[in-house]
Amino acid sequence: MKRAILLGAPAATCFFFALATGATLYYRAVYALLLALIGSWVWARLGLVGLRVQVERNRRQATVGDAIEERITVTNRSPLPKAWLEVEDQTSVGARAASMVISLGSHSFRSWRATLLAERRGIYSLGPIRVTISDPLGLFTLNRYFTEPEELIVYPRTEQLPNLRLLATESLGEGSVRLRARQATPHASSVRDYHPGDVLSRIHWPTSVRRGQLMVKEFDEGMGGGLWLIPDFHVSVQRGEGSQATDEYAATIAASIAQRYLTVNMPVGLLTYAEKRYLLSPERGEAQLRQLFEQLARARAEGKTSLTELLSKEGIRFDRYATLVVITSSQEVAWVKLLQELATQRVRVVVVLLDAATFGGAGTMTRVVEALKAAGILAYMVHQGDKLGKALSLAQAHSGEAALYESKMSLV
Predict the structure, then answer these.
(1) Would the CATH topology of 1-155 be identical to that of 223-410?
(2) Burial 203-217, CB ≥16 within 10 A → b, else e
(3) pLDDT given at position 305
(4) What CA–CA distance (Å, rounded) separates 239 from 388?
(5) At the topology level of CATH, where does 1-155 sit?
(6) Which residues of 113-139 are buried (b: 16+ CB within 10 A; e: fewer)?
(7) d(Cα 309, Cα 305) in Å, to the nearest integer?
(8) Which of 322, 311, 381 is nearest to 349 (CA)?
(9) Is the dihedral of CA 312, 321, 265, 394 positive or negative?
(10) Fewer CB within 10 Å, N or C, the chain?
(11) DSSP of 26-66, one letter per residue?
(12) In angstroms, what is the C-alpha Rg of the chain?
């Protein structure tokens, strides 16, 4: 468009001299320049006529590290050829696909594949597709957008944590997780088939007589025995970039822990202050895992509420049967005192520390580690590049197995 304006200036000058002198040469120059302007504009407008763009993608959900495959097809349904088209995918996930410059004959099409890498968790836009066309002189450049944008949710990556132990009732040996006995309410919510070992007092005799087999009452359980995940998404404590940022590690650790314990039917919940407050009360099941993954995907590391403030505001939420897992790179120690107060109320507390120095930050975690040791709180240290399955194992906890035994004894 700027070139068109520049071309209009000499046209106006020639027109002025044509009126002043009456010379035929100036009139011809004016006609030629005006024809060039009008012809270029018409060429550019006609270039967008008859275009059709289709995009086929292999997924609408992904996990960090997944590849999103897409096929873009541009069709010219017009008898006029398209000499120059720039096609660009406006997708926001990962490194945006490079634009393609193509030409199309009459009633022809062009198709190609593109691959996008989901590098970070989050909510992204797939599309639209922008097509840019210009006339041969480059005087006019026109854009047109095709396809409606679609939402892509990228869940945090997960890793297997076979040696992680968070609950006071977990077996110290290898094998399945033994869960804390949960407190049953006096309200029966349903009945089920009798299994050997069930307490006879829980048999529901009317239903058993009606069905001709023993049926056992199931009771509602209090939610206090749930596992709470508290990743720290406060903006001031984040370090690193891309997939190697502290908030990505925190989300990965939280998702991995949730997956481990939900698969053994432990109720797991989420509480974090990111760009807004995210709260998911502890529940069991596959649906809970999907909701937790989605909230971790949506949470951005833009929180204005510090971990200390979070624990101060929300501490009353956790009762004596809860287990808290705090995941943070904060080098402050004020929040450790709040965790110690919760521990005195028989709330099980475990901390996963992200060593900010290894993510490009300044300072050390020494004061925090010493404060956690003094408070008797079990903690794990994770450095950038660590394999989580190894870093989150009991042997790597700074307080060792003896502290776990002590913690188990204190909760009996």
Answers:
(1) no
(2) ebeeeeeeeeebbbb
(3) 96
(4) 18
(5) Immunoglobulin-like (2.60.40)
(6) ebebebbbbbebebbbbbbbbbbeeeb
(7) 6
(8) 322
(9) positive
(10) C
(11) HHHHHHHHHHHHHHHHHHHHHHTTTEEEEEEES-SEEETT-
(12) 32
Match 């992200």 to its residue by tokens: 354
Burial 19-47, CB ≥16 within 10 A → b, else e: eeeeeeebbebbeebeebbeebbebbeeb
Mean pLDDT in each 10-residue stretch from start to end of the chain (412 residues)?
60 70 76 80 87 92 92 94 91 74 93 91 92 84 91 95 77 44 48 69 83 74 71 96 95 97 93 95 93 96 96 89 94 95 92 95 92 93 94 63 37 31
E strands, 127-172, where? Answer: 129-134, 141-146, 150-155
Domain boundaries, the chain: 1-155, 186-221, 223-410
Q: What angle do CA 212, 213, 216 make, to 5 degrees?
A: 130
Which one-letter DSSP state was computed for residue 175?
S
Q: How far apart are CA 323 and CA 171, in angstroms?
A: 16
Q: Which residues pair with 52 in a beta bridge?
A: 75
| Structure token pair of residue 274 | 């990111």
Mention every residue, 6+ apart, whose C-beta is less than 8 A from residue 342.
311, 315, 318, 324, 349
> What are the backbone dihedrals phi and psi of residue 93, each rounded to the nearest 5 degrees, phi first?
-80, 135
**What is the distance between the alpha carbons of residues 79 and 105, in angstroms, rounded to a whole number?**
8
CATH superfamily of 223-410: von Willebrand factor, type A domain (3.40.50.410)
Q: Give the pairing of strands 141-146 and 215-221.
A: unpaired
What's the confidence (pLDDT) of residue 222?
A: 42
Distances (CA, A) of 269 to 102, 253, 255, 346: 51, 14, 11, 18
